[in-house]
Amino acid sequence: MNLTKEAQQKVVISQLAKAAKVCGISNRNNLPEEAGVMIAKADTSKRFLSAEELKTICNCCNTSEDAIELLIAESKQVIDKARRQLLAQQPQLTLAGGELYPEPRAEACWRDCQQFLRVIIYGVACDCTEITDMAGMSALRQLYKEMEVPIPAMMYVLSRMRTLTTQLLETSGHGHEATCLNKAFDNLCSALLPTEP
């Protein structure tokens, strides 16, 4: 059976979407087993940690429950602010012909940013800076290439998210968690950028 080029691309995109995975925290050997199980469960449901999970993970990983609660509580505002800053700088992105047009395409980008922040927050809760799944991120990079996702715009939003979340943690006295957060952002950003052949 011969598939049209468009049908072939849909198959490729579907396969890549299934293989794409951001969170690799639960695979880390140095993570307490109980924390790894809770992270895997929350990630499968694509949700933040529950209050009970958060308490357990912060206790066994020696991190601040208050810092993580703050990040979770402010996550929507952080993403909204980063999005507004991007669109103020590059309004053409969401106009007809722009890389984030039509609106469902832009919404998918903001959802991905929410998922990235969720995984980074898992990392901070676990005091884990290597948050990504290598194979899953490779599939995600290929998916983004197929779908022509504007990576420079996404990197700009991530840099704004990093600044905003770092300020939140530092101004509330959570320096250790701010350091972990920055290293987790580094890990995510390097995993998102295509490697040179």
Explain the overall architecture.
There is one protein chain. Helix content is 71%, strand content 0%. With 197 residues, it is mainly alpha-helical. α1 (5-19) packs antiparallel against α6 (134-146) and α2 (33-44) packs antiparallel against α3 (51-61). It has helices at residues 5-19, 33-44, 51-61, 65-89, 103-126, 134-146, 151-171, 175-192. The protein has a single domain (19-192), classed as Globin-like (Orthogonal Bundle). One of its GO terms (cellular component) is phycobilisome.
Defining key terms:
197 residues, Globin-like, mainly alpha, globular
Helix/strand order, N-terminal first: HHHHHHHH
What's the pLDDT, averaged over the residues? 95
The first-level CATH class name: Mainly Alpha
Q: How much of the residues is beta strand, in percent?
A: under 5%
The major β-sheet equals:
none
Morphology: globular
| Strand count | 0
Helix content: over 70%
Helix and strand content put the structural class at mainly alpha
Radius of gyration: 17 Å
CATH superfamily: Phycocyanins
Tell me the number of helical segments per DSSP (H or I, 4 or more residues long): 8
List the helices and strands and how they pair.
Layout lengths: L4 H15 L13 H12 L6 H11 L3 H25 L13 H24 L7 H13 L4 H21 L3 H18 L5
InterPro entries: Globin-like_sf, Phycobilisome_asu/bsu, Phycobilisome_asu/bsu_sf
Organism: Cyanobium usitatum str. Tous
Family: Belongs to the phycobiliprotein family.
Give a brief outline of the structure.
The protein is an all-alpha fold.
